[in-house]
Automatic annotation (TrEMBL):
Domain dUTPase-like: 11-142
NCBIfam families xref list: dut (TIGR00576), PRK00601.1 (NF001862)
Reactions catalysed according to its record: dUTP + H2O = dUMP + diphosphate + H(+)
Lineage: Bacteria, Pseudomonadati, Bacteroidota, Cytophagia, Cytophagales
Name by which UniProt lists this protein: Deoxyuridine 5'-triphosphate nucleotidohydrolase
Family: Belongs to the dUTPase family.
Binding site for substrate: 63-65, 76, 80-82
Organism, scientific name: Mariniradius saccharolyticus AK6
EC main group: hydrolase
Pfam families: dUTPase
Cofactors demanded by this protein: Mg(2+)
Gene name in the database record: dut
InterPro entries: dUTPase (IPR008181), dUTPase-like (IPR029054), dUTPase-like_sf (IPR036157), dUTPase_trimeric (IPR033704)
Role according to the record: This enzyme is involved in nucleotide metabolism: it produces dUMP, the immediate precursor of thymidine nucleotides and it decreases the intracellular concentration of dUTP so that uracil cannot be incorporated into DNA.
Database matches in CDD domains: trimeric_dUTPase
GO molecular function: dUTP diphosphatase activity; magnesium ion binding
């Protein structure tokens, strides 16, 4: 897939880190470091603007290393960028650790996965088909 992008950042375009990676690492594009205190959230710009084709979304997800090592994750995960959005991609970071984390310019702060999706049309009904699970909710599967 070819994706149109405007790169107003100081950094190269995101790249896949391995040949089988699903996500592209997004970098912070900031003029000065951004300190995020414990339980604080900050919106961090990337300087990237994209044009997704109809039927696709971009999902913004945490980077596992930042989450594990520093408790830094992405709120509203996965964040969805719709095909009609043309603004800057920004990442809503939250610090779930007990220590302040400082985001540096150019730091890889999140990953972006582009995914195909469908739009639904509702069909109202009075009954749904039966399944083995039925109406079993949270924690209902895997019980012996």
């Amino acid at each position: 897939m070819i994706l149109k992008v405007i790169n107003q950042s100081k950094h190269p375009l995101p790249e896949y880190q391995t040949p089988l990676s699903a996500g592209l690492d997004l970098r912070a594009n900031i003029s000065e470091p951004v300190a995020i205190k414990p339980l604080e959230r900050k919106l961090v710009g990337t300087g990237l603007f994209i044009e997704l084709p109809a039927g696709f979304e971009a999902q913004i997800r945490p980077r596992s290393g930042l989450a594990f090592k520093h408790g830094l994750t992405v709120l509203n995960t996965p964040g969805t960028i719709d095909a009609d959005y043309r603004g800057e991609i920004k990442v809503l970071l939250v610090n779930l650790s007990s220590e302040e984390f400082v985001v540096q310019d150019g730091e890889r702060i999140a990953q972006m996965v582009v995914a195909k999706h469908e739009q639904i049309h509702w069909e109202t009904t009075e009954v749904l088909s039966d399944t083995e699970r039925g109406a079993g909710g949270y924690g209902s599967t895997g019980k012996a």
